[in-house]
Amino acid sequence: MSEQSESGAGSTDASARCTRVLLAEDQGMMRGALALLLDLEADMQVVAQVAAGDQIVASALDTRPDIALLDIELPGRSGLDAAADLRAQLPSCKVLIVTTFGRPGYLRRAMEAGASGFLVKDGPVEDLAAAIRRVLAGERVIDPGLAAAALSAGPNPLTQRERDVLTAAVDGATVADIAGKLHLSQATVRNYLSAAIGKTGTRNRMEAVRAARQNGWL
């Protein structure tokens, strides 16, 4: 169940003018602090808080926020995957990725998922509030240092299937385990792993997983 805060929403003209914000953050202290600080902004109201990625869309459909602030690495489902579904099912809701992990590959995937902005968490809350207002005004807001890094890093070299196989290998799964999970033959899994190892310039599957995660490709 999502945690929601809708004190007096819609009860006055002032609250009706407030930007309705959904927060998706798995760290309770961080989530609570962000909610408190954003609620101090005269034109903003946090209407929903969720701790897991698989709660985002349902909570958004229930509370109808104007903007969703999504972390990336969440229990249940990635914030990037949830962002794509959110944009498809509730296109009126803007998406702003706010994460600790400023990786070029994550930025590219966020933009592909329809996010309107990407910020790293090390900035002051005033910058976050300003970014929310800019996104709702139709601008795209991207951390400038990360944008430069993404341009120099180039596109994700891995195909979707190569990413699926590497993701399934994260916990040291065997080729047979991966094949069973993805409904592929073991020979096909080996081919995908070999291709991913070559593209990441690594020596084995675990190094390939590590390199892909560091670049935000998974």
UniProtKB/TrEMBL annotation:
The protein, known as: Response regulator transcription factor
InterPro entries attached to this UniProt entry: CheY-like_superfamily (IPR011006), Sig_transdc_resp-reg_C-effctor (IPR016032), Sig_transdc_resp-reg_receiver (IPR001789), Tscrpt_reg_LuxR_C (IPR000792), WalR-like (IPR039420)
The keyword Hydrolase appears for this protein: no
GO biological process, one term: phosphorelay signal transduction system
SMART domains: HTH_LUXR, REC
Keyword terms: DNA-binding, Phosphoprotein
Domain named HTH luxR-type: residues: 151-216
Organism this protein belongs to: Streptomyces sioyaensis
Keyword check for DNA-binding: yes
Listed GO MF terms: DNA binding
Pfam families xrefs: GerE, Response_reg
Domain Response regulatory: 20-136
Organism taxonomic ancestry: Bacteria, Bacillati, Actinomycetota, Actinomycetes, Kitasatosporales
Source species, domain of life: Bacteria
Positions of modified residues (4-aspartylphosphate): D71
CDD domains, per database record: LuxR_C_like
